[in-house]
């Protein structure tokens, strides 16, 4: 007995066979076209040459079936095959394709015999509507128009010290621009210091352009500017705040509405890579292996392997990307060596922790690698009874803060903004957020021991964070701030 039987195999039938021939179930195809049967056999599919409406042919081919798919191009053949399926396999689930030029009588007959009917006209209409009138299809068309208007090279800027989601999104947007006929280059300020991120870039051989500072950017070189995984120039990047931006694609809730000719900002998805995957799919662009692998990794990282702020769109994008991605490369990316500096940072975070209830805050002091903060915050979240972590350290005159939450009503993004926006800039999602705070006091104490500076920073950051949480149960309503800060109130941007 086979689990699936296909009677007749026109173009639709071949598509169905490719979709269900996954190697996990027995399948048999009966078709009267020798070339199709030969092609199926070459693909490893069991196929019988014969009339799919002839009882003897079908009986000789199979003893029974759980699912019968009637899928010939001819509607009369499908009607007769559906009758045969109902007669020979009365307990089977029958899927009936109406075929071409199906009149009302045949349509009624197949609909009566089949458990599920595939109407080619309805299927075509649904496909066209999904592509041309879907919720975000018009947005994709506007993205294409915005790119076409770029006169020259499009500079696609990630946020500073970019993570996989930002990197993959920038590379993908450049791929879209290339397909449209516009040259584009992925750009960033800062460093790619996280071990996995460096492995990600190196293994996929991504060609990124790194600028040391704004002075290194020749804006006359570019015909347009795009921002991915952040939405405002000068906020989490080193672009001048008055930079004219043409395109923004991001998934983070903005503090202020972005200003650009084209904006695709959806905070209901888990990754910017999801948005780029959707645009590429709707535009019908052929995915290169490196772009598909990058976008899939970007989604996995930002959703923490589909366990954090994940949406249906993220799963759908991953499903689209997976067949084109190099999963072996992802395995290599996710198993890099960990630097001694990162381990030392995590150790200091554990040693210096302060816990109040289920909330943990800790200062790691001077930072060699700011990406280690996020790793420490994730690591400490695994401690028993801890639902919220805040890890911070300082480097080159700035305090960097990384926060994580799990299994709590606290909205970290709002909490961080409430606690630190007056002395710096902060934000993020409900369970993953960050902040950057300029250390205006640094010039006065830089010659003193690091322990002294750590003490000053801890007094402000930890107290301010705990007071904000304590004064706003559930993070509803207005937030209260406690204490005076010894920092300059300069606007910078939160960690991604």
Automatic annotation (TrEMBL):
One Pfam family cited in the UniProt record for this chain: TrkA_N
Every DDH domain range: 155-299
InterPro entries assigned to the protein according to its UniProt record, in alphabetical order: DDH_dom, DHH_sf, DHHA1_dom, NAD(P)-bd_dom_sf, Oligoribo/pAp-PDE_c-di-AMP_PDE, RCK_N
Coiled-coil ranges per UniProt: none
One GO BP annotation of this record: potassium ion transport
Family matches, as PANTHER family: BIFUNCTIONAL OLIGORIBONUCLEASE AND PAP PHOSPHATASE NRNA (PTHR47618)
The protein's name in its UniProt record: DHH family phosphoesterase
Native organism: Halorussus limi
């Amino acid at each position: 007995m086979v689990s699936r039987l296909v009677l007749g195999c026109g173009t639709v039938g071949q598509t169905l066979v490719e979709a269900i021939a996954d190697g996990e179930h027995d399948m048999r195809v009966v078709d009267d076209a020798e070339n199709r049967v030969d092609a199926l056999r070459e693909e490893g599919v069991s196929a019988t040459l014969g009339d799919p409406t002839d009882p003897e042919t079908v009986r000789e081919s199979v003893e029974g079936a759980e699912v019968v798919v009637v899928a010939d191009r001819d509607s009369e053949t499908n009607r007769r095959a559906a009758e045969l399926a109902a007669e020979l396999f009365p307990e089977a689930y029958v899927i009936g394709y109406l075929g071409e030029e199906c009149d009302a009588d045949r349509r009624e007959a197949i609909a009566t015999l089949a458990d599920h009917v595939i109407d080619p006209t309805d299927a075509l209409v649904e496909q066209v509507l999904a592509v041309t009138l879907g919720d975000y299809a018009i947005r994709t068309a506007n993205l294409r128009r915005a790119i076409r208007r770029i006169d020259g090279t499009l500079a696609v800027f990630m946020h500073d010290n970019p993570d996989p989601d930002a990197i993959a999104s920038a590379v993908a947007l450049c791929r879209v621009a290339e397909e449209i006929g516009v040259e584009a280059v992925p750009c960033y300020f800062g460093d790619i210091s996280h071990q996995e991120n460096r492995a990600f870039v190196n293994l996929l051989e991504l060609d990124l352009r790194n600028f040391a500072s704004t002075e290194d950017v020749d804006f006359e070189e570019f015909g347009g500017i795009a921002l991915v995984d952040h939405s405002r120039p000068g906020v989490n990047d080193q672009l001048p705040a008055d930079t004219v931006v043409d395109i923004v694609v991001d998934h983070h809730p903005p503090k202020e509405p972005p200003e650009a000719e084209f904006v695709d900002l959806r905070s209901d998805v888990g990754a910017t890579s999801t948005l780029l995957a959707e645009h590429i799919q709707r535009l019908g662009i052929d995915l290169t292996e490196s772009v598909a692998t990058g976008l899939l990794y970007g989604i996995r990282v930002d959703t923490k392997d589909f366990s954090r702020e994940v949406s249906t769109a993220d799963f759908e994008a991953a499903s689209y990307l997976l067949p084109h991605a190099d999963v072996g490369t992802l395995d290599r990316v996710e198993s890099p060596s960990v630097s001694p500096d990162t381990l030392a940072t995590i150790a200091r975070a554990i040693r210096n922790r302060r816990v109040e209830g289920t909330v943990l805050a800790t200062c790691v002091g001077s930072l060699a690698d700011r990406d280690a903060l996020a790793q420490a915050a994730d690591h400490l979240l695994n401690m028993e009874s801890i639902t919220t972590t805040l890890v911070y350290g300082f480097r080159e005159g700035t305090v960097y803060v990384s926060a994580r939450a799990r299994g709590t009503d606290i909205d970290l993004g709002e909490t961080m903004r409430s606690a630190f926006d007056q002395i710096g800039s902060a934000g993020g999602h409900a369970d993953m957020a960050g902040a950057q705070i300029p250390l205006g006091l640094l010039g006065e104490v830089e010659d003193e021991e690091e322990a002294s500076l750590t003490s000053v920073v801890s007094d402000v950051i930890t107290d301010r964070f705990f007071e904000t949480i304590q004064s706003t149960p559930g993070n509803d309503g207005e937030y209260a701030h406690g204490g005076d800060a010894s920092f300059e109130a300069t606007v910078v941007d939160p960690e991604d």
